[in-house]
Write a structure and sequence with these properties.
Helix content: 40-55%
Number of helices: 15
Shape: globular
Radius of gyration: 30 Å
Oligomer: single chain
Strand content: 5-15%
Largest sheet: 7 strands, antiparallel
Order of helices and strands: HEEEHHHHHEEEHEHHEEEEEHHEHHHEH
Structural class: alpha+beta
Strand order of the largest sheet: 2-1-12-11-10-9-8
């Protein structure tokens, strides 16, 4: 009898040991994955010189948040789970939810033409520029980027913080023409979502910020996701934006375009983005009406998808299976990206406080590493590469300018020493006038070059987005043109001394 009790006790003890072991396996595996990811993120942080990184990962009911770097490079504040970042075009998915929420409330219909709600909207027809074709654009065309509104329209938006900023976006469209008939093709343009923000204001009678906060963000439990209205300096825990300049990373406070708020100026942190991904997967419980809206936002438009590997759905790029969702947001001094596999209930969010082209690679590599695959090498950051090239060209141009300046100075000294004068003055004047016209014509063409590249593009807009090294390089190039012209004029015109002229 005693032996039997001992056997039973041993059996229960073994079962307990096995249970504890089995329970500890996923915990240990999750811990190992986090350690592996942290090592990889440390390597990326050191290699890329990003000022800060915040990464959130959802794997069914498990979650990981990894944050690295500094809020500001010259201060001690560290990037943490609650540090805020601009989301760029990731913002569009929130605006899309706002629109289909209003449709659910029967305040609008996405099959309606936009002019039903904004009757004064005007945009030139794709063929007949004297005809207004705004009435051809349906709300669903704006959601799907099939409106025909050109990408260049975004470039014409001016920095402003006034309450009429969204209306001003609608007004500026009168200077643009449709690229194609609405609904016939796909062409990404952020202005589509800015118009949706204006539509929300008109339909609800509230500001875009107030409506989205009270009816979308708070009901979803996203209490640390905000919409910029003018200046984020009043927000606690906001990471300072940066950009690459002269092969370093410098703090950069970009101009604020309130007219782009619905398409680019939501801000959030890793904790809220983790919750947002869980909401997308149905892991985090929200009221049924919102879960319906979320599910609808994953269904992509099929009307113009036959030639594309992915399709657009309410702020998401969706693959042909409808299960893999991606969104990348790039602002002048922040970048964000989301990747989700709805079939596996797996998602990744990457946010950084610098403008970079590497977030897509990071999403892919973190996904590979998490699933025990070898991550690929990061591609060269296009923005960092541009900065490096412009810095090198600036140095070369600077050296050329110094050499040319010395040559001009030497020639002027030589002219004075030898009493050289301008021969054939009438001909020299003609040469100077013609060459001067050519030089300033060339400089003028460079000044208007952005407009030739894309309608509405200006050097002011370019200076917001590109590294400072590019602007310096262009200025040095213009100065080089002027000095080369000046040196050529001096050589051509001042080549006879007074004695030679008297002899002739």
């Amino acid at each position: 009898m005693q032996v039997k009790k001992i056997k039973i006790f041993l059996f229960i003890f073994v079962l307990l040991i096995i249970s504890v072991f089995l329970f500890a396996l996923p915990v240990r595996a999750q811990s190992n994955k986090k350690d592996l990811l942290e090592l990889y993120i440390d390597q990326i942080y050191n290699d890329t010189k990003f000022p800060g990184l915040s990464i959130a990962i959802v794997d069914q009911n498990e979650s990981i948040i990894i944050s690295k770097g500094m809020n500001e490079l010259d201060k001690e504040g560290k990037i943490a789970e609650d540090t805020l970042f601009e989301l760029g075009s990731v913002s569009k998915m929130f605006t899309a939810i706002g629109i289909i929420y209003l449709e659910k409330e029967k305040l609008l219909n996405t099959n309606d033409p936009i002019t039903k709600y904004i009757p004064w909207l005007y945009i030139q027809d794709s063929i007949d520029t004297d005809r207004n074709s705004a009435n051809k654009i349906k709300i669903k065309d704006l959601l799907n980027h099939t409106s025909g509104i050109p990408y260049s329209a975004m470039l014409a938006i001016k920095p402003e913080i006034g309450g009429d900023a969204l209306r001003n976006v609608g007004v500026l469209l009168k200077d643009f023409r449709l690229e194609f008939e609405p609904g016939e093709a796909y062409a990404y343009s952020s202005v589509n979502y800015d118009l949706l923000g204006l539509l929300i204001e008109i339909v609800t009678g509230e500001s875009f910020q107030k409506f989205m906060t009270e009816n979308i963000l708070k009901p979803l439990g996203l209490f640390h996701t905000f919409i910029l209205e003018n200046n984020y300096n009043t927000l606690d825990n906001m990471a300072s934006g940066h950009r690459f300049s002269f092969m370093t990373v410098n703090e950069y406070e970009a101009p604020f375009y309130r007219g782009n708020t619905p398409s680019a100026y939501f801000i959030s942190n890793a904790e809220d983005m983790l919750r947002w991904m869980q909401i997308q997967m149905g892991i985090y419980n929200v009221p049924d009406i919102y879960q319906e809206l979320i599910s609808k936002s994953h269904v992509y438009d099929t009307s113009n998808s036959s030639e594309r590997k992915s399709n657009y759905a309410f702020g998401w790029q969706v693959d042909q299976s409808g299960k893999l969702l991606t969104s990348i947001g790039l602002n002048p001094n922040y970048t964000a990206g989301l990747y989700m596999d709805l079939e596996q209930d797996f998602g990744i969010c990457v946010m950084t406080n610098v403008s970079t082209g590497l977030v897509q690679d990071l999403l892919s590599n973190i996904n590979q590493l998490y699933h025990n695959n070898e991550p690929a090498d990061l591609s060269m950051d296009s923005i960092k590469l541009l900065d490096m090239l412009m810095t090198i060209f600036s140095l070369i141009l600077g050296i050329l300018l110094i050499i040319l300046g010395l040559l001009i100075r030497r020639r002027i000294v030589y002219i004075r020493m030898h009493g050289l004068i301008c021969a054939k003055r009438k001909m020299s004047k003609i040469i100077i006038i013609i060459s001067c016209f050519c030089v300033f014509f060339l400089i003028g063409q460079i000044f208007f070059l952005p407009g030739y590249i894309s309608e509405g593009l200006t050097w002011n807009t370019i200076s917001v987005w590109v590294p400072q090294s590019m602007i310096l390089c262009i200025m040095l190039f213009l100065l080089l043109i002027i000095l080369v012209w000046l040196y050529a004029i001096i050589l051509r015109c001042f080549n006879k001394n007074k004695t030679d002229m008297d002899n002739t």
